[in-house]
Amino acid sequence: MPRPLPTVDQLRRLLTYDPDTGVLTWLPRTPDMFAGATEHRRRWTCAAWNTKYAGKPALIGIDGYGYYQGPINYRYVKAHRVAWAMHYGEWPSQKCSHRNGDHRDNRISNLRDVDHQTCHRNVKLSKRNKTGAPGVNWHARMQRWQAFIRCDGKSRYLGTFRTAAEATAARRAAQVELGYHPDHGQPRKFPNHFIPKRDRMPLQTRE
User: Fold this and answer.
1) Domains and their CATH numbers in the chain
2) How far apart are CA 106 and CA 59, in angstroms?
3) Is the confidence at residue 159, as pLDDT, over 80?
4) Which residues contact 202 (CB under 8 A, 6 or more apart)?
5) 128-137 burial string, b = 16+ CB within 10 Å, else e?
6) For the chain, percent helix, then strand, then coil, each to nearest 5?
7) Scanning 58, 143, 177, 203, which has its CA 20 to 30 A from the CA of 39?
8) Using CA atoms, how far apart are residues 155 and 58, in angstroms rounded to an integer?
9) pTM of structure
10) Would the pLDDT of 80 be above 80?
């Protein structure tokens, strides 16, 4: 059974959030926030923690999907969901996604609380894609290009085409018609995968 999410009040006691930069920062802690058999031990642990962490960026571990994350109250949480909760006073009710596709850009203007379908309509081009456009592939038997798009949870067939460019144009027209995000299917500008700590860009310099 997973531990419950921290409350917004608990988050605000532990962290500050800058909505313009997206950076979460650890606040100094007090001895009563630490376990210990004696007051002296609690004070010592508190002082050591504040020296190491207070005033520094928080939740800066990076998971396999490129999201910042870290532990709070022995439970791992995603930094962008924490940012949303601290700014709006409640946890996101659905999927908290990044408008520009950069999973580490946690500015509040880049976050949105949307359903799965809306989130899916802003997916970047898969690295496994070989045609340069989502929903477009080569039909070997017909020797034609074909295009598809998802609508209401189902795949909609858009037809076959003589060239890849024609199939891609049909797919993009369907995206506009169905309200897909303008950046859907575009090549990813940001590496959304685990990055070793030695290679991470400092949060303060991100744009």
Assistant:
1) 8-120+188-199 (3.90.75.20), 136-178 (no CATH)
2) 12
3) yes
4) none
5) eeebebbbbb
6) 30, 25, 45
7) 58
8) 41
9) 0.68
10) yes
